[in-house]
């Protein structure tokens, strides 16, 4: 799967969120509408991020999106830290412009809509979401072998949407911008080059009468801390040629990070990977596996974590210190973590080699935190 285009835009915009959204400390409360409904239209095209995808480009792509959003009110510190973003759930229906090989799709994506700038009449916002998408026609060796992009009906769906919001009245606003929607399954099934849809979008939001009181208050003083984590993850993956068997894969990862601000933590760590498909890859290269230990790989990484309350976005870049196969010196990880309690967290990550997905890490881990000494 080629995901580098979407991931790089994702990382760039996340960093932009951290730089441009700020802490608000006004002394008095303001009133906002608690819920709103959005309806919009997309007009775009399929990005040929690989030459093999070019034959899938036939017609322009049309999409219809609806969403329900809730305004954060300042009841939690992260509302202030990120400028009172909206929390939403989007449902989008797509005509993928190729009824024979792709058909239609539907995506259900929870998202956050971050304000980058704010004004009484207009604001520049950034919608970032990660959910699930269903594509009607996937690869089939007998009936749809030309679809070399998608090997499964069910996929991950990622949306990045910078947009301008214009308030037309107290309850109605117009939203227009550009959007990138990405579908992929993380090599659970092959082929998995993925689909990238670029579109122009526009729509209207209707705010319900239900008011929400936004609490503008001073945040507590931030205290820097060390964070130690370890997680164990398992996965299933396929390798080329397409429509082959599935292989077991797993990860043990250790990390120490330093949370320097409300939003950001930087760290270093080590990883141990097990990949049963290495047996098959070594056979294809006419190499002999001398012991089961050669199906393991080890490496070290540097990491960045964008903290949003109990949820965080985790990104790392690592290098292999030991590997019996040569599919690149470097590996990468991007994913989500959710804190279940003070010690345990759940994680879902895409492990990749530059633009090519290796497998999805479905895992659970534990975290220990230690404050800096004065």
**Strand elements, count:** 18
Distance N to C terminus: 47 Å
SSE-based structural type: mainly beta
Q: How much beta, percentage-wise?
A: over 45%
Q: Counting H and I runs of at least 4 residues, what is the number of helices?
A: 3
Task: Walk me through the structure.
This protein is mainly beta. It has two domains: about 15-215, Porin; about 225-370, Porin (Beta Barrel). Helices cover about 10% and strands about 55% of the residues. It contains three helices and 18 strands. The strands form three sheets. The protein has an eight-stranded antiparallel barrel. Strand 17 and strand 18 (about 355-370) form a beta hairpin. It is flat. The termini are far apart.
Summarize the structure.
The chain has 374 residues and is mainly beta. Helix content is 8%, strand content 56%.
Task: Compile the SSE list and pairings.
Elements: H1 4-20, E1 30-33, E2 35-46, E3 61-71, H2 77-81, E4 86-95, E5 104-117, E6 122-135, E7 154-167, E8 172-184, E9 195-207, E10 211-214, E11 225-237, E12 247-259, E13 264-275, H3 277-284, E14 296-308, E15 311-322, E16 330-339, E17 344-353, E18 356-371
Antiparallel strand pairs: 1-10, 2-3, 2-9, 3-4, 4-5, 5-6, 6-7, 7-8, 8-9, 11-12, 11-18, 12-13, 13-14, 14-15, 15-16, 16-17, 17-18
């Amino acid at each position: 799967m080629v995901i580098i285009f979407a991931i790089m835009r994702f990382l760039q915009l996340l960093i932009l969120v951290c730089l441009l959204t700020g802490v608000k400390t006004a002394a008095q409360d303001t009133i906002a509408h608690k819920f709103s409904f959005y309806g919009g239209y997309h007009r775009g095209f399929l990005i040929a991020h690989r030459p093999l995808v070019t034959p899938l480009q036939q017609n322009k792509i049309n999409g219809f999106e609806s969403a329900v959003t809730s305004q954060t009110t300042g009841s939690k510190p992260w509302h202030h830290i990120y400028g009172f973003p909206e929390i939403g759930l989007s449902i989008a229906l797509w005509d993928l412009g190729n009824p024979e090989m792709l058909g239609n799709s539907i995506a259900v994506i929870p998202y956050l809509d971050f304000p980058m700038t704010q004004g009484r009449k207009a604001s520049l916002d950034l919608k970032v979401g990660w959910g699930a998408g269903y594509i009607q026609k996937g690869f089939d060796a007998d009936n749809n072998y030309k679809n070399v992009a998608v090997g499964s009906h069910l996929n991950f769906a990622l949306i990045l949407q910078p947009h301008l919001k214009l308030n037309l009245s107290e309850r109605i606003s117009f939203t227009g911008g550009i959007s990138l929607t990405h579908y992929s399954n993380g090599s659970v099934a092959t082929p998995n080059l993925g689909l990238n849809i670029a579109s122009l979008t526009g729509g209207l939001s209707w705010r319900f009468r239900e008011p929400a009181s936004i609490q503008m208050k001073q945040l507590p003083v931030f205290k820097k801390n060390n964070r130690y984590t370890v997680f164990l993850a398992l996965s299933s993956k396929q390798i080329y040629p397409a429509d082959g068997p599935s292989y077991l894969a797993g990860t043990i990862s250790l990390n120490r990070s330093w949370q320097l601000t409300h939003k950001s933590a930087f760290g270093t760590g080590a990883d141990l990977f097990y990949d049963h498909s290495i047996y098959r890859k070594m056979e294809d290269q006419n190499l002999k596996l001398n012991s089961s230990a050669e199906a393991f790989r080890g490496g070290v990484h540097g990491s960045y974590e964008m903290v949003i309350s109990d949820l965080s976005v985790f990104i790392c870049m690592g290098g292999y210190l030991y590997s019996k196969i040569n599919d690149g010196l470097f590996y990468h990880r991007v994913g989500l973590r959710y804190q279940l309690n003070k010690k345990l967290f759940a994680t879902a990550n895409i492990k990749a080699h530059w633009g090519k997905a290796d497998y999805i890490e479905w895992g659970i881990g534990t975290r220990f935190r230690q404050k800096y000494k004065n």
